[in-house]
# Entry
Amino acid sequence: MIPRFRPLVLSLLLAAAFGAAAQTEGGKAARYYEDALKRYERRDLTGTIIQLKNALQVDKTLLPVHLLLGKAMLGIGDAAGAEFELGEALRLGVNRAEVVVPLARALVAQGRQTQVFDDVRLRVEGLAPAVQAELLLVRAAAASDTGDMRAALKAIDDARSINPAVVESWLAEIPIRIRSRQFAEASAAADQAIKIAPGSSEAFYQKASILHTQGQIQQALALYDRSLTAESGNIEARLARAGIFLDLGRDKDAQADLKELFLLTPNEPRAIYLDALLAERRGDINASKNGLKRITEMLDPVPIEYVRFRPQALMLNGMAHFGLNEFEKAKPYLEYAARLQQNSPLTKMLAQIALAEPNFGRAVDLLESYLKARPDDSQALLMLASAHLSQGRHARATALMQEALRAKDVPEFRAALGVSLMRGGQSATAITELERAYKADPKQSYAGLALVNIYLKSGQTAKAASIAASLVKTRPDNLSVLLVQALTKRALGDDAGARAIYERALKADGSLMEAKLGLARIDIAAKDHEAARKRLTEILRADDRNVDAMFEMAVLYEVWGKNDEALKWLDSAVDASGLKETRPNFAQVAWHLRKGSAAKALVAAKVLLSKSPEEPNALQVFAGAQIANNDITGARTTLTNASRRAAFDASTQVNIARDQLRINDIPGAAYSLDKALTAAPDHLPALVLMTTVELRSKEPAKAEARARQIIQAYPKLGVGYGLLGDIAQSRGQTTVALEALRRAHDAQPSAQSLLRLFSVLLGPDGKKPVQAALDLAEGWLRSHPKDMLIHKALADAQARAGNFAAAKRGYDAVLKIKPNDAEALNNMANVLLRQKDPSALKYAELALTQSPRNPLLLDTAGWANHVAGNKDRSIQLLRDARLREPGNAEIRYHLAAVLAKAGRNAEAKEEVDAAIRANVTFEGLQDAKSLLATLN
# Structure
């Protein structure tokens, strides 16, 4: 018989052996836990978690380890990890009362607020009163997050009924009341909290936050000070105070608070954001961008569901992406936050994004809703005006700003009024308003920049440069203003000054693309092709899909004379461009039109139109390509569509009407201009063009009435008198026309107004120039010796009159000002041909190098080569000219003469016969008839 006690002895031995090992391992796990607990008390949460995970490597069943690990993970923001560990603690048998509060907070942190009420593990029943009260306050916060303020306040009342003397219930009530804008109730709760706990840092912080929200900044600041005196480590109070210091311009004080915050919590994203704002303010753009990027790198990995009820986190990440111009990434965060804080400043940010997209209708909806709640927000009013302007509603924008000015006359409103008037075509009034705004407040960069733009467009470069310089003085660290000043420097011809500004901007922000591209453009202008190529290559090395750099490469190679390379880069820019990047497409169409490739231009225009089928400018360009392909019917339809898509944008409608007049679509132009004038009855370009339309429609009475309307509205301008001159000429009233044109020139003396007067004085054929016309032009040139337009007009008049020596002197004067002027070179060649001067050939060929596909220049060069005895070159050029412009009788006669001399009589007869049958008068008509007689 085997003794029965042996198994028992064996089991005891085994138990003893196991117990010794377990005791050894258990001691090790306990030491890890104790060290973790000490770290947790010191708020060294990372160290806590490491030690607790070490403990779990030893024993995965330790309840206190799972519980503390859950709390530590919650402390570092790992809500999902916290939920798992707290759930493990429950599963392993920890008392529910130990985990309900941190577990509820973990669910709230993940955006699962409703689960706090539904999860059976979190029922209030069966818990100790103190734990019940704590859990009820978490429930109150969850209900508030979901917008159920009644449930939130009910939970607080239930918690307070358990123990009214506990300060936490009063503190919990305050943010809920603030969110409901119940400031009196919030203040009463704060007062009660201070009464219960007079030394509570949190109570002073909450009281301050009420005042802060109401705009009582100094009172709030005093209470934040008291909060931090009670507890210097109150992160919320220090953040709030730093924000106020920043708003007040007390940057040093803000920096001191941020320094303390980074010691307390190095990765607090709100502190990083404030630090980024400070960096931007002192001009350290790189540091500012790095701070914003750091925030997005911290918050982007957090699922948006976790923070959908956290306005601060949503706002912070949204604003960080916004500051980095990452609007698509910013939008969902800002939209979530705006739902929680309706009609808050977040709405304005969303409106800015809508304007940038562009989605102007959405921007208008957002801003109008926002302004109902905050009618005194001037920035929002300005944005709304801008949105209306972008939709072509210039009159609405103007009315909005005029109404705002009646309530409050401030420079920013006057600046916006000026911009709306400018967009509405009321340039004179616009300039007055903008100048008043800028004079009232030189820091009003909006008005200043608008004035710079107007002055540059109108050729008032010195004025533009002066405004830009003063803007830089008031905002020396604003890189946008610096870049505008660089543009004015370039307009003045001061490329060295522009280069210095671009280089200064790049020192402030080495990634500033506009400055890099600006330097490349200056290199291109200086014909330093290799330097420009290196700059652009460097940009493309960092970003091989940079459309702007590819585009400038195309410009560089065209200027360099390397057309194949230029076209390759332009095509690459088109290929790399996105749906919203159409500049390369516009340029590609223009390239092919410029090079005479009408069919390719049409193909490129179709691609452009596929990107922007509703864009009026794209439709106009497509119409231009159709015209180049002689599809006049198609162009009419396209321009009509463009006019419909342009709605009531006066400036766009005027541009469309000009194109319609090019193809003699008088009804179409009238329709477009009528829409322009409906939107902006005083839009000067529309009024002027409509007068022209009425004149071409043989309605001189209507045209005259409109011209007089222009004179009445704009008495200091010459344009109305100029139109009266045109109308008088159409009626054959030369004396009346001259009087009107003199008044136009006296009102606004310019080369253009003088040229019109000069032309009428010359008479219809100009063959016997009136001395008064010559005296007028020569008198102007004495005070304007570099006016090429008048030099050319005077030289042309002398040439037509047969005064070739005087004409030669005139063209010489032009070529001294601009040696490569194709028109002057060509006309000089013609004059020299009349004088039988062999140097005519040189001038003709030089003209041709400037515009090698121009049929008139080809004709001159062909005839000059014929006179010089270059038969083959002459025939080649004249055949080219004839094919480009077969309706030109003079070109066909020249070709016939050259062919006849070459013995190709049949072809010559066909050409000269066509020239004569054209039934037009041209120089050499009698010679053509003589040639035909010899060929017959």
Q: What stands out?
A: Residues 886-936 form one domain. Residues 1-24 have pLDDT under 50 and may be disordered. The chain has 54 helices and no strands.
